[in-house]
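Whiteboard transcription, Tuesday session. T.W. wrote the structure tokens on the left side:
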């Protein structure tokens, strides 16, 4: 209680009521192009992430792996090491490497599925491919998240809470979609079907990002060099 008493008083600048606040969020979602683009990236990345971690236990519990629950949990624990990328991504974003960080994270998301695709063969090589793919994907998703939030909050500092609410809503809808598709894909088409479905997320996000960068690039000079 003493710590709370010493905290500086903060009076929100916005005077909007609850209904007006909800209406303003709808306007932001409809009009803010940066939010739409960044929400699309993270929808697709988290879709891929949850698809991977939904399909992977099903793969590992069956031949050629036939791992038990403890062994599957150890594999998942190893993949969680990618979470250390968040603070590193934050430092990179603070130094202005948002575009580079976004490009690398989306590319790593695509690469993770290419590597993990070898995991369907089983054996030590297959398990190693799954672990490397998990590390890449688990690192790519938080980096993309940090870069997106940093760009959003820097561009619209007075609308951070509303932007983050909308952004995170899209984020988790992507995750729920990925979990549903993951079960369907591996049950219907096996691990390679799950791989194609999962890789489509970061691949589409990377494509959208590269198109955006191409449209933002300055036109080439038409002058003849002397």
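and on the right, the sequence the group agreed on:
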């Amino acid at each position: 209680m003493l710590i709370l008493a010493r905290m500086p008083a903060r009076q929100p600048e916005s005077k909007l009521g609850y209904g007006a606040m909800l209406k303003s969020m709808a306007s932001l979602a409809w009009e803010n192009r940066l939010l739409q683009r960044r929400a699309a990236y993270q929808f697709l990345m988290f879709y891929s992430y949850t698809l991977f971690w939904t399909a992977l236990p099903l793969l590992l519990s069956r031949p050629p792996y036939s791992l038990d629950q403890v062994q599957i949990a150890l594999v998942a624990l190893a993949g969680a090491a990618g979470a250390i990328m968040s603070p590193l991504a934050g430092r990179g974003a603070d130094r202005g490497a948002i575009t580079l960080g976004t490009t690398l994270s989306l590319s790593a998301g695509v690469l993770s599925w290419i590597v993990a695709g070898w995991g369907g063969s089983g054996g030590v090589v297959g398990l190693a491919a799954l672990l490397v793919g998990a590390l890449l994907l688990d690192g790519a998703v938080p980096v993309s998240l940090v870069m997106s939030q940093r760009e959003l909050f820097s561009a619209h500092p007075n609308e951070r809470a509303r932007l983050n609410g909308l952004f995170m809503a899209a984020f988790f809808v992507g995750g729920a979609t990925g979990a549903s598709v993951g079960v369907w894909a591996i049950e219907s088409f096996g691990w390679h079907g799950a791989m194609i479905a999962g890789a489509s997320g970061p691949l589409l996000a990377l494509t959208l990002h590269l198109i955006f960068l191409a449209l933002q690039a300055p036109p080439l000079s038409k002058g003849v060099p002397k």
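Someone added at the bottom: Residues 160-216 form the longest helix (57 residues).
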